[in-house]
Design a protein that fits this description.
about 375 residues, single chain, 2 domains
Length: about 375
């Protein structure tokens, strides 16, 4: 049986650790506490003596292929981009919510709808802090609204976040707060690697995955770390100062929305210097194991592409559409669904091939 020691050798030492925190959260969940997150956001031993070498931390790591077949069966996964029940382009009707949110604000709108109708007690989301983007267990309506989008301080912009800004948030680590508060109905919003890790916990019936009722996945080309002076390099590429930025968004480019109303675009190929190492090995673009996947690809400004993947995902999305969302009619846009499918497949295939090539080089 492989253990955390093997994770250190196979994943951490090769630069493939996403820092999702699934292994640490599991260890805390069963009260052994042998693991913790280091200052570099990489898991490490708190105490080797406390580790019981059970091997579950190894199995739930999204990089390791243990349990992959089980979660594929569990989610009725199919090639090439996972199960697709339906594809829609939507936006939240509330203009204030839409103004705060990324793309069309559909994730925020759906979380608020689930909360207002009593279907969830909270949601694991991400919010901006002085330390960058951090995981957060939102347990009030105000919490959910505060986490919407990628907005920054209205007077200082990204600059007030200092030299540690990253587009990545280790959302799985917020499961620790879920354990402590004992909530039983949660929506989890995360990147593909995070969704995969928690799905593995669900397959093994590990606490607290039983409390997660809805899995909302985010399209992810890659995540970027702008610490150590990299923000200055980004300023050069974008030809604008970071304190002029109001919001960051990722579509087919990195989009920097300025306070003057303009937008600066930076191509992903120019951001290799800031790309997180683990993202080079990730082969999931569209969160293939989520109940619903969301992103800007294929949708116009102010709209969100929504991919429903499970029966529960389709049901809650339909309910939210009736209550708070608007969507583009396929009848009025007959080529929209085929265009989005093509874009998703192309982006997914590109990421899968890149990950395969990077892995072959690493070996």
């Amino acid at each position: 049986m492989k253990t955390f020691f093997d994770l250190k050798q196979e994943v951490h030492a090769t630069g493939r650790c996403h820092g999702c925190g699934g292994c640490v959260t599991f260890c805390t969940a069963i009260n052994y506490g042998a693991l913790e997150m280091g200052d570099d956001n990489i898991p490490r031993y708190t105490s080797v003596e406390k580790c019981i070498d059970c091997g579950l931390c190894y199995m739930i790591c999204p990089v390791i292929d243990e349990l992959d077949q089980k979660i594929k069966e569990q989610s009725a996964w199919s090639a090439p981009i996972g199960r697709v029940v339906d594809i829609t382009v939507a936006q939240v009707r509330d203009k204030d919510q839409r103004a705060r949110a990324t793309d069309g604000g559909v994730v925020t709108g759906m979380l608020l709808h689930l909360f207002d109708t009593g279907r969830i007690d909270g949601a694991i989301v991400t919010k901006n802090t002085t330390e960058g983007r951090e995981p957060f267990l939102a347990t009030t309506r105000e919490d959910i609204l505060a986490s919407a989008g990628s907005h920054f301080d209205t007077t200082q912009g990204v600059a007030h976040l200092g030299e540690r800004y990253s587009t990545y948030s280790p959302s799985t680590q917020a499961l620790g707060a879920l354990i402590r508060q004992g909530l039983k109905r949660i929506a989890f919003v995360g990147t593909p690697c995070q969704i995969k890790s928690v799905r593995k916990m669900q397959a093994l019936k590990i606490v607290p995955s039983d409390a997660i009722k809805y899995y909302f996945g985010l399209f992810c080309t890659a995540n970027f770390d702008f610490s150590g002076g990299k923000l200055h390099e980004l300023e050069k590429l974008a030809d604008c100062a970071m304190d002029s930025i109001e919001k960051i968004n990722i579509k087919d480019h990195l989009l920097l929305h300025r306070k003057d109303g303009g937008t600066s675009k930076v191509a992903f190929r120019d951001l290799a210097f800031a790309k997180r190492s683990a993202c080079s090995f990730c082969d999931d673009f569209s969160a293939e194991y989520a109940d619903i996947s969301f992103g800007g690809l294929g949708a116009g400004e102010g709209w969100t592409t929504v991919v429903t993947r499970t029966a529960i995902g389709r049901a809650v999305f339909a309910d939210a559409c009736d209550a708070s969302l608007s969507f583009l009619s396929i009848d009025e846009n007959p080529n929209l669904d085929s265009s989005i499918i093509q874009n998703l497949q192309e982006s997914s295939q590109k990421k899968k091939l890149a990950a395969e090539q990077q892995l072959s080089v690493a070996k």
